Amino acid sequence: MTLDPGAGASQAPAQGTPGRLNHSIGAFEPELGGVLNDVTLAYETWGELNADADNVVLITHALTGDSHAAGGPCAEHRRGGWWDPMVGPGRPVDTGKYFVVCSNVLGGCSGSTGPSSVDSETGEPYGMRFPVVTIRDMVRAQKRLLDDLGVSGLALVIGGSIGGQQALEWAVEFPDFVEKAVPVAATGALGPQGVGMSEIGRRAIMADPGWQNGDYYDTGKTPEEGLAIARMAGMMTYQSAPGQWERFGRRPAGRPALHKEFGGRFEIESYLHYQGNDLVGRFDANSYLYLGRAMDLYDVANGYGSTEEALSRVCAELLFVGITSDWLFPASEVKDTADKASRAGARSNYVEIDTLSGHDAFLKDWTELEQAVKPFITNT
Amino acid sequence: MTLDPGAGASQAPAQGTPGRLNHSIGAFEPELGGVLNDVTLAYETWGELNADADNVVLITHALTGDSHAAGGPCAEHRRGGWWDPMVGPGRPVDTGKYFVVCSNVLGGCSGSTGPSSVDSETGEPYGMRFPVVTIRDMVRAQKRLLDDLGVSGLALVIGGSIGGQQALEWAVEFPDFVEKAVPVAATGALGPQGVGMSEIGRRAIMADPGWQNGDYYDTGKTPEEGLAIARMAGMMTYQSAPGQWERFGRRPAGRPALHKEFGGRFEIESYLHYQGNDLVGRFDANSYLYLGRAMDLYDVANGYGSTEEALSRVCAELLFVGITSDWLFPASEVKDTADKASRAGARSNYVEIDTLSGHDAFLKDWTELEQAVKPFITNT
């Protein structure tokens, strides 16, 4: 691997995840206003950069993901990389061939600058004084990281959910830099049902007295209950009704109770409690607010005259992946975005994963996912 | 109208809604345990009871409804009866022909005994010491009211959502008493997605420090924010994704803000805030918990060997009404319940309302609803 981190770069291993590096991209101006004096992105890489620095794959993570897309279990990642079956030698994202980069998003809480970071001007965590950041901001920050790493172009950018929004935005924002883009389970703009579910989670966090208008850091009190409820609402949008019938049905809970009984307890409730509780231990509530808001606000047409005008900028070949039972980003809307890209002149493909897993399929239905994306990735 | 309220009955006009009466059905033992020493049901009637006391229609209301199914606006009901277009002279439920009864459910907060009622043993409101009540309990309480009113049988029982669960339960629990039953937008048992959404609302209420384990009455503090969030989660299940695209899309909010801006505000968010806020002013949070739990717990098979065994008890002719875009009680599951009733030997019919209105269609798509149910009601 040959890296030229550039003059302004500072690299130091981040804590908790071996192999994770921190890199400063300097000052950053989010598109909706405000300024961040010094933005750090945490990232990981796999494989070797070639001499032309163009064998690069960027993996963009989803809402509560992070840079640890691949690799084995570690202290922070008991189950290993969140996309590990997709990334490695001989896998769809082949680390024998590609130099693979995954960075924690701007606004996140796993090493990259976000609301829990200390504002150097005040010496205090940003909290809700952190500027609103968008999918485009995340992509622009990633571009600065790649530039500093000496990358000359992306052979592929791929991700699911808000990672899929980033993949699409990459192709629109930096058309000459991207050869292929694979937005999985993502559209040009989230629908009102998704925005509504997102808002339920936000209100739950903000209504929690532990939230304290976002200034809960170092108070010994956090919006745990609110974040857990937000996660529960999120989990509902990641699964499908038939999938939940199959997995949970109306069976009584088997797990230990996290909350008081009230006329019995269903497995689905117990599962939601568990998932809510699990996120509280590993994710910052303010980051959850900011990243969810970025998902809601994203519209590929933002800043252009129309969706078509935005999509007409694309030079990359696109593969949109829809999931039949997805209700956060319904397959019909993913296909509609793919069709719009075609009509706008892009080389746009669409493939559908037929599953009951819902939106979550991109994080678990490995065989189907590989079948959907591998031919597109390997076809040169 | 000829009424024999029976020896134990006490009738007095309830406050707030002209025409609403209170009736004591005495002590009541909910099926899952506990005892209520003195249960009052608030109810309203329209039309005249005939000499045989068998021209009776019972209307069963949904989660946040009450006895005011029909009639004009009053102080408590600015928009009039919640099913007014369905009930009146010449309307599908014809008050020129039928004696129509609608009572607020056991566990409710609009005159009937519920968690906000004072427990005569302690002199304090029940709060969460109120026993868990079921759909079957609601139906058994209604039966006692009808017996006291001298009603000899139901020509029809009809309702939507948990009102539909009650209509179905009536036909199973009191097979000889019911001639026709019309469960609208209801199945034999709610699916895990519905239970999960319900649990999100419950946790939001219970996490609100104003809830105080249910003992918030007379403390000057109520779980307003939690109840509003629960209502928002409920509203999501009452609408459909395509319906929300049509009605709200991604349009910015036009209403005054009830909550702080955070990177802009969408119409769907503003609508949810409004709906949440609106319920807070008119509904008791503990009642919301109990009635939602009754919806979750209802399984027509409860107490029988199977769904089929339960449905084989039915003597009434059934009409199940499904709503194509309903995701709380999906049309396919309503149809499945209708089919199971047929296979169990019941005279079971199924009709579908094709609409984008979602679950809420039974409270707004009047023309379609009338077309769906009127032929069945008037066919003798």
Outline the fold blueprint.
The structure is a homodimer of 380-residue chains.
Chain A: E1 11-13, E2 21-28, E3 36-46, E4 56-60, E5 87-88, E6 93-94, E7 99-103, E8 118-119, E9 124-125, H1 135-148, E10 154-160, H2 162-173, E11 180-184, H3 192-207, H4 224-238, H5 241-247, H6 267-280, H7 285-297, H8 307-311, E12 317-323, H9 331-343, E13 347-353, H10 366-378
Parallel strand pairs in A: 4-7, 4-10, 5-6, 10-11, 11-12, 12-13
Antiparallel strand pairs in A: 1-2, 2-3, 3-7, 8-9
Architecture overview:
- 2 copies of one chain form a homodimer.
- The first copy, chain A, has 380 residues and is α/β, with parallel strands linked by helices.
- Chain A has 2 domains: 11-192 and 299-378, Alpha/Beta hydrolase fold, catalytic domain (Rossmann fold, 3-Layer(aba) Sandwich), CATH 3.40.50.1820; 194-291, Rna Polymerase Sigma Factor, Chain: A (Orthogonal Bundle).
- Helix content of chain A is 32%, strand content 17%.
- The first copy, chain A, contains 10 helices and 13 strands.
- The first copy, chain A, has helices at 135-148, 162-173, 192-207, 224-238, 241-247, 267-280, 285-297, 307-311, 331-343, 366-378, and strands spanning 11-13, 21-28, 36-46, 56-60, 87-88, 93-94, 99-103, 118-119, 124-125, 154-160, 180-184, 317-323, 347-353.
- Chain A has a 9-stranded mixed sheet, with helices on both faces.
- The radius of gyration of chain A is 20 Å and the shape is globular.
- At the A-B interface, helix 3, helix 4, helix 5, helix 6 and helix 7 of A face helix 3, helix 4, helix 5, helix 6 and helix 7 of B.
- Chains A, B: Residues 55-363 form the AB hydrolase-1 domain.
- Chains A, B: It is found in: Cytoplasm.
- Chains A, B: Pfam families: Abhydrolase_1 (PF00561).
